[in-house]
Amino acid sequence: MTGAAALRATHARAALGVTVAAVAIATLLPAPGAAAKAAVLAALVAVLGLPHGAVDHLEGQTLLAPRVGRAWWLVFGALYVAAATVVVAAWLLWPPGLLVGFLLLAAGHFGAEDVAADPAAPRGPLRVLEAGLRGAIPVLGPVLFHPERTGELFAYLLPGSSAAGVQAVLVPLAWGAPVFAGALAAFAVIAWASGRRGTAVEVLALTVAVGVLPPLLAFVVYFCLWHAPRHTLTVAARLSPADARRGLIRFARAAWPLTLVTIAAGTLAWWGLTGAVNAVPAAIATVFVGLAALTVPHVVLAALHARSHIATAT
């Protein structure tokens, strides 16, 4: 097993262990309050989630430097900020459209990344189907398993909407929860039978986590324990294919400046929102609208990288 493969295996075991522990704690202890959940969300997204996208400029350099030379960083910065600004403007002008678009984009991105990291994943239409199913776990799962709690959170992202109004839309969808859970269980059985035992266990663990944990904490478990570290290890392996640890060091050096800038910008945005709403809704809106603003250029870069990789391979 190579150094990169060993790190990926270690990450999978650690993420699984923490996921199981989180579920166990949630079943034994009283649910944390809204302020505590918002604080955990903001802190862990800042520390564990943001860095995985804070190296997008490296991909931007690879794509733009051959075309525009040393001015690549100006072009990259302008395009990145413009894309993020469009997302924030969309939230201000049409919050429901932004929310639906973000959820669909996030599900597609999460599923594609999970499948891409699995060397035993199928090809062709089955790969697309698996990506859709796995990407739906952290996005559709909370809606189906916890429609009332999720409706309350969505209301924070929809200015002028009441929690009761959003819940009235989501609660009727709860009938799909057993269907969704059954589909995931069937997938896990098929994956296990085909020798993909790690994938089967991961899918089952995440399904249980989404079903048991409050939506905010379930998102933290997936995004901060599974998705972001997995992407980090992938990028680190590109930075130093022969030395996984050196790749992580290079990743950290490349990620910390923009991570700090993003945290500072998010803090200012949260402070500005607290003038209009309470601290908890402001924190949740800041995190998720901010993630939406960063997800669009991040996903575009990931797609361009995949396209260039396919072109090179062929």
From TrEMBL:
It is an enzyme of class 1 (oxidoreductase). GO terms for biological process: carotene catabolic process. It catalyses: all-trans-beta-carotene + O2 = 2 all-trans-retinal. Fe cation binds at H52, H109, H227, H231. Pfam families: BCD. Its main location: membrane. Coiled coil: none annotated. It is found in: Cell membrane. Keywords: Cell membrane, Dioxygenase, Iron, Membrane, Metal-binding, Monooxygenase, Oxidoreductase, Transmembrane, Transmembrane helix. One of its GO terms (molecular function) is monooxygenase activity. Its cofactor is Fe(2+). One of its GO terms (cellular component) is plasma membrane. It is a multi-pass membrane protein. The keyword Metal-binding applies. InterPro entries: Blh_diox. Its EC number is 1.13.11.63. The chain crosses the membrane at residues 71-94, 169-192, 204-225, 254-273, 279-304. Belongs to the Brp/Blh beta-carotene diooxygenase family. Catalyzes the cleavage of beta-carotene at its central double bond (15,15') to yield two molecules of all-trans-retinal. This is Probable beta-carotene 15,15'-dioxygenase. It comes from Limimonas halophila.
